Amino acid sequence: MKRRHTNKRNFKKFILFTFTVCLTFALFAVNSSAQTVTGLIDTLKSYSAEFAKSENIRYSYDKEANLLTMYAILTADNGIEYIADTAYVDVDRDGNWKVRTEDMIPDPLSDEEARILTDKRLWLYKADKYDNTYLLDFTQTPIKDTSGTEWFPLLDEFSTTSKFTAYLKTIFTNSLANDYITNTSIRIFGNELYDIGGKVSMYSFHYEDYLLEKTFESDNGDWCFYKVTVPMDNEIGNLTFEIGLYFTEDGWRVCYDGFGKTSEIASFVKAEKRIDLEDDSNPSTCDISLIYPLISILAFSGILFVSQKKK
Q: pTM score, two decimals?
């Protein structure tokens, strides 16, 4: 009879011990899964139909803002990739990730708002390719280069690279603004800009008479494609371009630029099994840490101890 009671106590201890071990391993499994990019993506796919459909999930990391942005990329009917959904992940000093739960839902993009952005882009295209005299400050004395050519400076709001880049960021996403600066010829004397682009054509276009036609809108309404038709002269006919407008934290911006055939998506890095950030770390994607398994072990150890004392 005594041995039976001893076996019974040992059996209870074994059950408690087994439960503790199983729970500990379960918490470790949850923790290790959540600390990988795969775990983060699985979480996003469970909440977002766009992430679930996407087989091309990419990210960008803003080290200054400590912000990791995840993008679910899909392909529109016109064959151009677009951002179907976006998730913002804050990275704290300890390397922990916390997904922002609030959604940025844009108001529907009106035709007037779309035209304002397109106006700016066309105006810049005209300056870059044809004639930027209306960007120049003729009140200042021009500077002569070694060939004797006179160059007038750009107006004050475009007079330096930083000012011009800031202006571009009111039209483009940040990446496209920097891409424009990088891939556009800029004539600089000292720290001032005196010319942008190369005048590659003698033709000009009817800037005010262009047609703007929406060809695509994403399900969540934060990405739209537009076909731009620009009347030229009788010899050339019409020029057609496509631009993509995307709702960012800074408002609507050009995210696909058909004029230069550049896209914000080209600057994103594809998320594979893990993400190497600037410091080569792979921080946690949730608030679960090793403290939870530790607490569990201590708690159940206490239960075992108390049960032994009672017996």
A: 0.70
